[in-house]
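Email to the structure team, subject: Peptidoglycan-binding protein model.

Hi all, the expression group asked for a predicted structure before they design truncation constructs. Nothing fancy, just the tokens so they can compare against earlier work. One-line instruction: predict Peptidoglycan-binding protein, return tokens.
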Amino acid sequence: MASEPELRAGDGGEWVLYLQQTLNHHYQQQVTAESGEFDAALAGAVRHFQAQLGLAPTGDVDAATWRALTGTRYRWPDKPVATAEVTAGGTVVRLGLTLTGEVGAGGADALADLTVDLATDPPTLACTGATFLPGSPATVPGGAEYTGTCALPGAEDATGYVLTVTTDSEPDAWHAAGTVALPATTDLVEVT
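Reply from the structure team: attached below.
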């Protein structure tokens, strides 16, 4: 559901009761009392659940935690999820990372601290909690396109990726850019 509220210790009411029931159902045993009160024991159960799924174990129930609990599946959008533009030796270098496949709650959050090292060939992608495996390069106008797979927390299967690196001039000049941060947007599309 898209309307679940954020919950944290000290909250109470029907949504907290629903959270408790959903956690107990997930674990197929009673891991928390169904009292409708968000106490320290419930916060601990939420942290444990979040850690198991690769989410930040805050104990607060945010949208990503609700998605994990309710089993909603998402796919990556049909556009780059991370882009950057840097200058290397007077050459403007444009980067775009597109992902494919379905993910669960933690998939989008897994793109935290995403970087690409352009000094390596093929470029090395890295982010917290994920493993990127390079694939084959292809030449595109003004640069190169690299395809591969990555394992992200919250994704049932390997996620495919395409990294595009282009410049306006001197196609090989982008290697001098070194490591570049790729801020990611996570506009996931719900799978219906």
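The longest helix spans residues 14-27. The chain has two domains: 14-71, 75-190. Ping us if the truncation boundaries need rechecking.
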